[in-house]
């Protein structure tokens, strides 16, 4: 029930995690609450406030370890002790270094019984972006592409518009709105000239990040328009002073120089680290094949959203290039979270498992 | 209701079509029936026999045009007129040339009101193999393969066992049992040495057909064993007298010579025509990539069963090679019939639309 309550905050609490809480006394539910909006009360406080009777001696069920630090609101552990809660059942510990187990220790030192790790996987999945960002200092990376059933994202000559249906395009815009930033390679900008904004659904525009090692994108690219409203960062290996650098800088885009990787392209891990420092906790990668392959080979992808159009194209361009995998046992493993129909298409939403292997 | 009844015969009536019938009088259902087993009563007869009262003046609903020819049982149209049925509602006409609209004409000439084309698509889909076989004199071709989410059926070095799960292997055996014949290319026999029999589920073994233009498969191949029990046909462009022909013929396999296509390989359409003449109405193609590509490029595939393993392999071997399609609009279109989970895998069962285009 606490998990269900937590989900009601989706879309309103970011960058805070979703949290739900339930108070039980003598086998009866006497209070429920969830974190409703960023800056508002935490779930525990709402459950305490909503309680239908005195909570002394009751059990508090909460999806995430209560906080112990003064933030936008006072620490929850104080309210728990003050209200004489007897037992706290916690879904998962909070990996935020300001909390991480300190609250559990404090509650126990106050004589409160604490149990942790109940439905832990579900509680971690609920806030997968939050946990990944906290624990790795890297954005949670979603790779999204549309392919034919036989795995092609474009014809051999590069035609890719439109593989998927209008319904799936709307889905893509929804996905964009749910991410802090969106990233594509220069090739995609040159070939498709996308705007990379949220237009087909309501939602804020994510930061646009273009990986353009050689600074090749044309000045009239759509991603370089309306820069005052929608920000664009261009990541390159070129340094200020380079004429191409100057050309694009003059248009108002922010250009950041990143070290080159072994292949002489922008080192994507370093770029991700830099984005994380700018508080980008979730990043959507929309192509092309070179960026997707590079992200996968470097184990930087967390989630894969594959839109499958009910078509067979035959020879063409594949989303995923050479991952240097010569043994089936070493193929990257996915855990399927959801399969949905989207117009004529099928959307497979999965997570990469064994990341870092 | 007639459609539902018809489905109860699945697995028992082949090569006859599935048929269901319902008799309605004054708004009440007074009889139901379906074709229960090959050689047994037709659906209409069972519905008449099961009728709870006099059927005179009633309406007969039947998924397929009633028969007008003496087969294993007397013609159904005689029973319909004899029993004074007033109206017949037919799902779809029977494309069997012995029937095709003749029954409808006869019933009308007897003063019976006839309506056709009610839920026609559903009634045709119910017996898609039967209709295809009747109308084209070619087997209904199902192409089945297991791929990673990124469309690879093997590593670059050819390793393909096992991309899919044990559950999907069982599904494959079930699919085999439901087909009259199973076909693979010589490459698959040489590389994987499959037995191509039904072992993991109950069911009869389909005829095995090996396309081996140059007659290269080794004599100790599993498909050449137990030939007295499980028949194998090898299709080649070589003629009797060729030493390779003799080598394999000596092992007891039937070898048939087919004209070469433009590429110098067995002409698959001619092979399919020959199989149809031998009463093979359904053919399962299990690979490899060359055969699958050739079947698709020649518009000979009707159904595509794609097992998707939750893995990303990157560069490897794709199921579908060059189809000479350079424009997305010309990609082969699929109509998705079913998406099911099979262990960790996803099975997408689809039909190729616009066949012949």
> Could you spell the SSE succession of chain A in H and E letters?
HEEHEHEHEHHEEHEHEEHEHEHEEEEE
Give the helix/strand class of chain A.
alpha/beta
Look at the structure and give the mean pLDDT of chain A.
94
Tally of strands of chain A: 17
Specify which chain pair forms the largest interface: A-B, 51 and 51 residues
Kindly describe this structure.
The structure is a homodimer of 357-residue chains. Helices cover 25% and strands 27% of the residues of chain A. The model of chain A has no long low-confidence stretch (mean pLDDT 94). A nine-stranded mixed beta sheet of chain A has the order 11-10-9-8-12-6-13-17-16. In chain A, strands 2-1-3-4-5 form a five-stranded mixed beta sheet. A two-stranded antiparallel ribbon of chain A has the order 7-15. With 357 residues, chain A is α/β, with parallel strands linked by helices. At the A-B interface, helix 11, strand 13, strand 14, strand 16 and strand 17 of A face helix 11, strand 13, strand 14, strand 16 and strand 17 of B.
Provide a quick synopsis of the model.
2 copies of one chain form a homodimer. Chain A contains 11 helices and 17 strands.
Features:
homodimer; 357 residues; alpha/beta; five-stranded mixed sheet; 11 helices; elongated
Write the layout of secondary structure elements.
2 copies of one chain form a homodimer.
Chain A: H1 2-7, E1 20-25, E2 28-34, H2 43-50, E3 59-64, H3 76-82, E4 87-92, H4 102-109, E5 113-116, H5 120-126, H6 128-136, E6 140-148, E7 152-155, H7 166-177, E8 181-185, H8 186-192, E9 207-211, E10 232-236, H9 243-249, E11 254-257, H10 268-277, E12 282-285, H11 289-297, E13 303-309, E14 311-312, E15 316-318, E16 332-342, E17 345-352
Parallel strand pairs in A: 3-4, 4-5, 6-12, 6-13, 8-9, 8-12, 9-10, 10-11
Antiparallel strand pairs in A: 1-2, 1-3, 7-15, 13-17, 16-17
């Amino acid at each position: 029930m606490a998990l269900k309550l937590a989900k009601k905050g989706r879309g309103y609490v970011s960058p805070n995690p979703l949290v739900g809480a339930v108070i039980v006394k003598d086998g009866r539910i006497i209070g429920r609450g969830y974190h409703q909006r960023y800056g508002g009360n935490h779930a525990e406080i709402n459950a305490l406030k909503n309680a239908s009777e005195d909570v002394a001696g009751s059990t508090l069920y909460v999806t995430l370890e209560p906080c112990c630090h003064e933030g936008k609101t006072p620490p929850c552990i104080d309210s728990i002790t003050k209200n004489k809660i007897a037992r706290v059942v916690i879904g998962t510990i909070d990996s935020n270094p300001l909390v991480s187990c300190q609250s559990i220790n404090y509650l126990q030192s106050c004589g409160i019984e604490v149990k942790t790790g109940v439905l832990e996987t579900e509680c971690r999945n609920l806030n997968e972006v939050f946990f990944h960002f906290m624990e790795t200092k890297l954005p949670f990376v979603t790779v999204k592409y549309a392919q034919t059933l036989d795995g092609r994202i474009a014809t051999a000559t590069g035609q890719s518009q439109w593989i998927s249906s209008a319904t799936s395009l709307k889905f893509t815009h929804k996905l964009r709105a749910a991410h802090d930033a969106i990233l594509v390679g220069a090739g995609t900008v040159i070939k498709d000239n996308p705007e990379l904004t949220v237009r087909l659904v309501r939602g804020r525009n994510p930061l646009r990040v273009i990986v353009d090692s050689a600074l090749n994108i044309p000045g009239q690219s759509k991603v370089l328009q309306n820069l005052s409203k929608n920000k664009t960062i261009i990541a390159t290996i070129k340094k200020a002073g380079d004429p191409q650098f100057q050309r694009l800088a003059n248009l108002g885009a922010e250009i950041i120089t990143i070290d080159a990787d072994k292949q002489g392209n922008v080192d994507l891990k370093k770029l991700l680290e830099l984005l994380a420092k700018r508080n980008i906790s979730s990043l959507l990668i929309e192509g092309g094949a070179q960026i997707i392959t590079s992200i996968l080979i470097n184990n930087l992808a967390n989630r894969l959203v594959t839109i499958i159009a009910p078509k067979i194209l035959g020879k063409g361009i594949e989303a995923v290039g050479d991952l240097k995998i010569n043994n089936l046992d070493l193929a990257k493993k996915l855990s399927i979270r959801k399969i949905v129909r989207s117009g004529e298409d099928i959307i497979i939403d999965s997570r990469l498992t064994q990341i870092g292997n």
